[in-house]
């Protein structure tokens, strides 16, 4: 019976089906909000579903000079890693696998989709992909530093209360702390880290204005330039699911509360919070900001988000 429950978790909620539907719906809402802010009608919310199934019906073309196995396996590996992350992120007090992973594991798993994009692009043999790969590496270097420092601040803050001052990276303990003391974003020392993580999400996802790796106009989708058919559909799906996973993680880290213990209610609450708190902010950022160049992205993240994350970590060490 326990094995059956775990299979259902992996296939339905919070696994594959939830990520597929939730990710594509969020992508559709994001496109619709952005269009409205720019005074356009925009595509229907269900457009990402149409695009995904249309790509599935297209022929998959593998370049002559491509490393075929790596080229085709890359998007699948990225998808598997994102589904795995979703299983470890608690929805307030519910997570079927939360005791098996912590923030360190989540960081590693969230890096795999970016690495898969790099591997897939390099396997295609395209010069455009080569440019996109180098840009993706710069993006990783840019956002990982403020993200890791923000997570260290969270781990230290929770550890002061629940672990005798020792950093705790347990997601379940982070949720438990917020159940007892209120959401972390309400703590003075956590406000800078809250803002830093909010700024990290669009670059981690690869959304405007931080889509430096795929830059459609400049380098023709970069690492994805040679992809078509089902592999391209999976890469597009990965992008949508990453938005869902990152916003869910953000909500869990900063906006968790006591919850209800009821699976359906918690899932809906998390979904709404993700849209209202994170996606609305990211969409505003897209609407008012031009796409950053490579050097601007690195300079921006190593200046403002990193400084905010360090400020949180310092405030936590001073007991605030």
Automatic annotation (TrEMBL):
InterPro entries: ComplexI_Subunit1 (IPR052561), NADH_UbQ_OxRdtase_su1/FPO (IPR001694), NADH_UbQ_OxRdtase_su1_CS (IPR018086). Keywords: Membrane, Transmembrane, Transmembrane helix. GO terms for cellular component: plasma membrane. It is a multi-pass membrane protein. It holds the Pfam family NADHdh. It comes from the Bacteria. It is found in: Membrane. This is Carbon monoxide-induced hydrogenase proton translocating subunit CooK.
């Amino acid at each position: 019976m326990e094995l059956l429950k775990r299979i259902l978790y992996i296939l339905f909620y919070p696994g594959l089906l939830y990520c597929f539907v939730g990710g594509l719906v969020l992508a559709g809402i994001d496109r619709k909000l952005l269009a409205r802010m720019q005074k356009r009608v925009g595509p229907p919310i269900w457009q990402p579903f149409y695009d995904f199934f249309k790509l599935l019906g297209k022929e998959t073309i593998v370049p002559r000079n491509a490393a075929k196995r790596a080229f085709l396996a890359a998007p699948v590996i990225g998808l598997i890693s994102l589904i795995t992350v979703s299983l470890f992120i608690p929805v307030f007090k519910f997570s079927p696998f939360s005791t098996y992973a912590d923030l360190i594991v989540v960081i590693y798993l969230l890096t795999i989709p970016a690495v898969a994009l790099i591997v897939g692009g390099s396997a295609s043999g395209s010069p455009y992909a080569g440019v996109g790969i180098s840009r993706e590496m710069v993006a990783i270097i840019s956002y990982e530093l403020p993200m890791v420092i923000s997570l260290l601040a969270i781990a230290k803050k929770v550890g002061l209360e629940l672990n005798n001052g020792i950093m705790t990276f347990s997601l379940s303990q982070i949720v438990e702390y917020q159940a007892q003391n209120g959401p972390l974003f309400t703590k003075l020392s956590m406000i800078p880290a809250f803002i830093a993580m909010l700024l990290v999400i669009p670059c981690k996802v690869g959304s405007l204005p931080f889509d430096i790796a795929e830059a459609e106009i400049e380098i023709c989708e970069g690492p994805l330039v040679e992809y078509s058919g089902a592999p391209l559909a999976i890469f597009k799906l990965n992008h949508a699911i990453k938005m869902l996973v990152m916003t869910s993680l953000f909500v869990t880290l900063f906006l968790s509360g006591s919850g209800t213990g009821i699976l359906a209610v918690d899932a809906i609450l998390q979904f709404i919070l993700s849209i209202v708190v994170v996606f609305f902010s990211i969409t505003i950022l897209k609407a008012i900001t031009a796409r950053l160049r490579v050097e601007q992205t690195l300079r921006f993240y190593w200046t403002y988000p990193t400084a905010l994350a360090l400020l949180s970590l310092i405030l936590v060490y001073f007991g605030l």
